[in-house]
Amino acid sequence: MKLNKMTSLITSLAMIVICIFSSAPAVNAELNMRDITTMELVSDMGIGINLGNTLEACGDWIDGKSAESYETAWGSPVITKEMIQGYKDAGFGVLRIPVAWSNMMAQDGNYEINKEYMSRVTQVVDWTLDAGLYAIVNIHWDNGWVNTFPDNKDECMKRYTKMWTQICDNFKDYGDYLMFESQNEELGWDTLWNRWAGNQGKTESYALVNEINQKFVDVVRSSGGNNPKRHLLISGYNTGIDVTCDSLFVMPDDPAGRCAVSVHYYSPSTFAILEEDADWGKAQSTWGTDKEISDLNNEMDMMKSTFVDKGIPVIIGEYGCPTKNKEPESVYKFLTSVCKAAFSRNMCPVLWDTPGGRYDRIECKMVDEQLNKALCDIAGSTIKQPGSDGTTSVTYQISDLKKSSTGGYIVPVSGDLQKAIINLKVTSSENSGWFCGGGALTFGSVKDLSTSETFWSNKTFNYDGGKEKVLINFDGTFNDTDDNVHQAKIDCNQAELVDYWRSSEKYPEGGDDVNVEYLSITLYYAAQETPAAVPGDVDCNGTTNSADVVSMIQYMLGKTTLTDDQLKNADLNADSRVTIIDLIMLKNLLLKA
pLDDT grade, residue 579 (50/70/90)? Predict the structure, then answer.
C-alpha cells in the first residue's frame, strides 16, 4: 500500500514537471510543437504589442553599414534583452516583430538576406522567446517592393519565395511560440482595383493576393524542421476588415490546417491616422460617440462571423492611434475599446507601438500605467512591477553633482552597472530644422577580465532635438583608446558625464545654436545574488569549526551581533531564529565531521 502511494506521488510529480516544461518556450526545441489548434494558440497569446519602426526601418538615406544603423534609423534605441523582457512584464503575451529583410541585401538579383541582419533578427526573436512571449515575424513594407507585384509578378514572386525560403531555413527548428506572417498591409493594389471606383480589376487583384498567400504556405510547408507544422498568419486584403471579409478573399489551402488571418484596425482613419487635416479628410481629435462604438462592434462582429465562427482564428496585427492633437480621454477610450471588442470575440489584439509611443524603451515599461492596467484587465494578464527582479537604481540630479576641472559632471559609480538613463533638454536658439549632439560617460579605469590590464574608456551616446532621454547600455565590453574591444568591468568609483559635440543645419560643424541641459542621471545595477546559506559557518569564513560554536554562543548571550549572512548560516533548522536547537545541531554537525 505504501509502495503504491509512493509510486503515485512520484508519477504525479513527474506529470507536473512535464506540464511545466511543455508549456514553456524553448529555442531550437524540436519537440516543442504542441498538439494544439491554431485557435488555441491564438487564445493563449492574450494581448500583444508591436516592435514597430525598428527592424523594419529602411530607406536609401541610411548608411547601411550595419544592422544597428537600420534598427535605430527611425528613432529606436538599440534593442536589448531587458527591453524585450519589459514587454512580458507589462502583461503582453505576443510581440509582433516587423522586418525589412532587404536591408543590407546585395543588389545582384539573388535576394540573399544579409547574414548580419538575419543574425540580429534571430537574436531579438530569441530574446522574445526567452521572455516567455510568442513572436510573430513577417515581411513588412520593406521599401515597397511588394507594391510592384502587378507590373513585375515573376521577379517579385521569385524574390518573395527566396526570402521566405531563407527565413524558414533559419528558424526551422524553433517551436510553436514562433509564428510566421505572410506580409504586412501591401497585399492589394490600387493599380489593379480602385475600391472607390467600381469593380473593374477587383477579381484580378484578389486573385493575386490569394496566390501570394498560397505561395507563402507552400514554401513554409515544404521547408524542413518544424515548419510543416508551424502556425501561420495570413495577411488579409490590405489588412482591411471589410475587404478581407469579401468572398473573393480566400484562405490558402494548408495541409496542416494551422492558419490564422490578420487584419489591422485604424478606423475611423480621421482619428486613428490623421494628426492634421489632409486633402482626403479632416483630422478629428475625439472618439467615442455611440455611432463610432457601434461601427467598431459591427466590424469586429463581421470578423467573428466570417472567420472565428468558422474555425479560422483572427489576430488584429495592428491597432492604435496617434496622441498629437488628440483628446487624451478619447485615445484611452479608443485603445481600450478596440482591445476589448477584439479580445471578447476570441481574437488577439496587437497594439501598434513605435519609439516614443506607448512603451518606453528606455525605462522598459508602459508609459501610461492606467492604460497598461486597463489592457491587462481585459485579457486577465498580470503586470510585473519594475524592480521586482531585484534590480536596484540610484538617481542623481545634475544640479547636485560636482564638476571636474574640464567641466564634466562627476557621477559616483559602483557595482555591476547595467545601464544609465540620462534625462536632458535639447533646444536650438535659431530653430534649426534639425539639430543633434552627443556625449559620453568616461571612466578613468576599467579592468580587462582576462589580463587585469586597466585602461581609460567611455560609453558614448547621441541626442536629437526634442529628445528627453538617452540610454547607455553596459554589456560587459569596453573599448580602449585604440578601439580594441575588451571584456572588462568598471575599476573606479566615479565617471564623468561630458558633452562632446553638437550640430545643426545652421551650424553643421559647431552647432553653436544648440543647447543641451542635462537634468538627471539614473544608474541601474544588476541584482546582487544572495549567497547560499552554509549551515554552521557562523563567522562566514568558509570553514565550520569550534570557532563557530563560540560565535553562536556569544550571539545568544547578547554579547555580539550577526550579519544577515551569518544569521542564515547559524539558523540550521531554517525556522528564521537562532536558538539552543541550532547550537545543538551545530555541535552534532561537528561531531559527525
Answer: confident
Catalytic residue list: 185, 318
Distance separating alpha carbons of residues 392 and 257, to the nearest angstrom: 48
Q: What is the pTM of this model?
A: 0.81
Q: Where are the alpha helices (DSSP H) in 491-579?
A: 546-556, 564-570
Angle ∠(40,43,47) on CA atoms, nearest 5: 155
Q: Transcribe 211-247 into DSSP letters.
A: HHHHHHHHHHHTSSTTGGG--EEEE-GGG-HHHHSST
**Nearest Cα to Cα of residue 111 among 63, 64, 73, 167:** 167
Q: Which residue's C-alpha cell is 475599446?
A: 337
Distance CA 452, CA 84 (A): 33
Q: What share of the chain is helix, strand, coil (3-state, %, to 5)?
A: 35, 20, 45
pLDDT in tens, 380-436: 999 987 655 567 889 999 999 999 999 999 999 987 899 999 999 999 999 898 999
Helical H runs in 60-201?
A: 67-71, 81-89, 115-130, 153-170
The model's pLDDT over 550-564, given as tens digits with 9 standing for 90+, comes to 888 888 888 777 877
Cα gap 579→570, rounded to integer Å: 9
